[in-house]
Amino acid sequence: MSSVRTPKQQRSIQTKHLIVKAAFHLYAQKGIHGTNSKEIAEKAGVSIGSFYSYFKNKKTLLLEILEDFLDRTYLSIWKDMGNFTLNELGRDGIRFIINNVFEAYDLAPTFLRQTHALRYSDPDINRVYERERNREVTQIRFLLENNKHRMRALDQEAAALVIHNAVESVAHTAKLIGPKMEEKRLVNELTEMIYSFLLREDTPQ
Amino acid sequence: MSSVRTPKQQRSIQTKHLIVKAAFHLYAQKGIHGTNSKEIAEKAGVSIGSFYSYFKNKKTLLLEILEDFLDRTYLSIWKDMGNFTLNELGRDGIRFIINNVFEAYDLAPTFLRQTHALRYSDPDINRVYERERNREVTQIRFLLENNKHRMRALDQEAAALVIHNAVESVAHTAKLIGPKMEEKRLVNELTEMIYSFLLREDTPQ
Amino acid sequence: MSSVRTPKQQRSIQTKHLIVKAAFHLYAQKGIHGTNSKEIAEKAGVSIGSFYSYFKNKKTLLLEILEDFLDRTYLSIWKDMGNFTLNELGRDGIRFIINNVFEAYDLAPTFLRQTHALRYSDPDINRVYERERNREVTQIRFLLENNKHRMRALDQEAAALVIHNAVESVAHTAKLIGPKMEEKRLVNELTEMIYSFLLREDTPQ
Amino acid sequence: MSSVRTPKQQRSIQTKHLIVKAAFHLYAQKGIHGTNSKEIAEKAGVSIGSFYSYFKNKKTLLLEILEDFLDRTYLSIWKDMGNFTLNELGRDGIRFIINNVFEAYDLAPTFLRQTHALRYSDPDINRVYERERNREVTQIRFLLENNKHRMRALDQEAAALVIHNAVESVAHTAKLIGPKMEEKRLVNELTEMIYSFLLREDTPQ
DNA sequence: AATGAATGAGCTTTCATTCAT
DNA sequence: GATGAATGAAAGCTCATTCAT
Lengths: 205, 205, 205, 205
Fold this sequence. Notes:
The structure is a homotetramer of 205-residue chains.
Chain A: H1 10-30, H2 37-44, H3 48-54, H4 58-78, H5 91-106, H6 109-119, H7 123-146, H8 156-177, H9 183-198
Helix pairs in contact in A: 1-2, 1-6, 4-5, 4-7, 5-8, 5-9, 6-7, 7-8, 8-9
Chain B binds a DNA duplex (21 and 21 nucleotides) through residues 1-2, 5, 7, 9, 11-12, 15, 36-38, 46-53, 57-58.
């Protein structure tokens, strides 16, 4: 019956954006479970009826927001990679990327915590995160491939996944949960772990 | 007011156990959020009144189950450590522990996924997990300490946390989420990463 | 969170009124404690969801009804006072007011009985009744003040409260509880008691 | 089936008394509605099963306690009347009785408030209170009768009821609800009102 | 297109009372 | 007689979604 509107007109696009913005703030503020559609519509200055003409249901809204957010996260992590000669990856390069990840988590830690949680119980959310992970892992493999000549022999596919997991989970620990250990110390050890994992001992002789 | 019944009689103990068992299954089957108290009682073959005389509320039940489960997990991970000389930790020892972790996740992956999710949105659940993590990290530091002489200089506290995160998150990926990469490959690379992180190159000269 | 709807549209106003009406009847019929929200909604021909969008909770509904009712009672008691020259208060004036009180209690004796009961156990209800009593006592003091010159010396503040209590409680007895003594006899003696309390013996010389 | 036990043995009597005592305290402490049978049994150091072998149900217990309490109240109000020559009732005698009533309300004001509330919604409670009122009114009529010769002509039956209401309701106001006006002032005016109502002007000279 | 009133299934929890042991 | 485990009706309230206006 009532199909979801695909906004084409200027006003429509803006309304939809208002809803997304309102939801994003409320999610961060009160948690996803603690936010109901009426509130979102109210905060967006829109009727609940409008809400449901722009989004099939609450879940759809969340997925859209999440997808959008992860896109921005991805860009933020891999930005400025040009500064590094890709096939000369060293401690600094690794640290640079790790720092980017940590910074990306600062954009909206609460929202991220909320959605990451759902990943384990909601297949749709998980799918979005999987897509994101695939992109990340692909990037990592690309780095590994570019530095193949300087690297230990390893199962590249598995290694990339392992590295991704390590970085992501340490970022989670640092940003989302605690314990309140100084971030720098975690970044240092993480960098060191990945560096020593990947690269042959420099010192020959 | 009406306090929670502490089972002393045989019948009581059994009833409480029935409830726990039913809840555990339903949680795994339909998700924690998707399971309501009535269902649990029904599946346990017990009245809803009984349910609430054994557990103050739904949450209490979950916490009790989780705490119990993590205790068993912990024991299962660190069992049989006696087989290794603690101060001779090598690839095999690392792999052994990692395998134990992976196996522990097999006990009830769905339940684990569910509760781990809640960690990010429920402070009580998080507290239980934090307690668990502290135990794990302490164990890891104990291992590092014992192998100090053969090890790179590192920030032990941070390193232990980083290692714990890496192992746990790879186990999650393998067991709880996918992608379905052969587990062995993940274990291999993970082992390698940790090994090369911790230990000085054996091969001198 | 979800705030209570303030009816603006015609339909809203009517729905809210339907709920109030239904509640009022059920309260009188089955007692306030004996009436649940579902019943009220049903009798109003409205969904339970509607009920809770107009009233924050059961209690709020009761308070609103009570406040409204006591307002009407107050007006009904002190109506037509213009017929009496205020500074010529005599037996007839006293009897007139007493009769008004008795009549006011006829409007909804059962509802009144129910709420008056709660006064002793519910601070919110009591607050509403206190506000009402203050209005009444103020009116009585106003009468006393106007007839000061013809009156015994008395502690006006205390006297007004004592009189108010006497009238209210006799009305209660007559209307709400029994025993079934002819009302007129109670009114007569009550009038006499107040009259002789207030006014100096006419018999001069 | 399971009939209620009528305690004859010493132990039984004591057990029943323990329950009554526990209930009385809890009622005063947490309100009648706020006290459940399990609590009562616990506080009495008795099993819930025992509770129900001594009292048919919660209501029965309450009625028994109330009846007992009103008996004690009655005795307390009319004690020491011998100090007054009954047929010489004057301001002092009236004040004495009023003071007794006020004091009686001090015995257990919270319990009294609770039960008095129920009077309006529970016919059984009301019946007990009615019986009590009849006793009181009878006593008042007895006093009036004894002082007939010094008294205005009045409808004795109605007058006694009116007086009873006045005293009881002022005591309620003073003890159970507020406003916090000094009690003495209320007693003074109440005494005066009743005195001037009852007795002919002492007509001096 | 937009509105917001209306819906009602669904959830958690309480507590008087029963009855098997 | 005594115990206390078990019962289950019943109540208050929420919120995603629909649809008449």
